[in-house]
Amino acid sequence: MSKVVVLDHPLIKHKLTFIRDKNTGSKEFRELVKEVSMLMAYEVTRDLSLDEIEIETPLTKTKAQVISGKKLGLIPILRAGLGMVDGMLNLLPAAKVGHIGLYRDPDTLKPVEYYCKLPHDVKERDLIVLDPMLATGGSAVAAIEFLKKRNPNSIKLVCLIAAPEGIEAVEKAHPNIDIYVGSIDERLNEDAYIVPGLGDAGDRLFGTK
Ligand code: PRP
Ligand code: URA
Questions:
Q1: SS3 sequence, 145-162?
Q2: Which pLDDT tens digit goes with each residue over 167-183?
Q3: Which atom of ligand 1 lies nearest, measured to the CA of 203?
Q4: Is the minimum distance from the CB of 83 to ligand 1 under 6 angstroms?
């Protein structure tokens, strides 16, 4: 069964408030999304395995722990997932980045794939799928389905804001995927936007509306 983790740290809650605010412009919106993504990276990587090495402090030799050579892959769903990449890379600089282009058809609300470029060794990697919004779940379900066919080690999904409907859709389609979110909002509206949400994440990130 999927694990659904709400990352409700006060810093994340605080920053999400200003991300949601319609008066926050693109520059600040981008910065805040980056900061929240960095904070989320901290929790999402809690289960990374450690190796023990020997080092010398100025006082003595000692054993200490370092992250084992685990291979991570960050997979932003274009466009809005791009906003989360830099924050994650700040904490996970060795991760490779793959891209999946999906947009939600405004009439059918179904995801349409238009681009994909993944690390060549995706089979050996633990993948973290990034998308600020989990609304109907259509995009995330399709992206995960697509990635599963490439047999990665594991897949996690990280979103800033989710609707209950989106979480349910991912859990149903991919019961073995852990989902990390900053907030589970009330509902979807008639246009499948998350309420209260933050509006259109791609447009707010890139100033396209
Ligand atoms: C947004 C968002 C998700 C998707 C969520 O992307 O970034 O990918 O909608 O909706 P869903 O859960 O109902 O699929 P959008 O299709 O607007 O494309 P964009 O990122 O290019 O703006
Ligand atoms: N995509 C967005 O960008 N925002 C929503 O609320 C739903 C889907």
A1: HHHHCCCCCEEEEEEEEE
A2: 999 999 999 999 999 99
A3: 22
A4: no
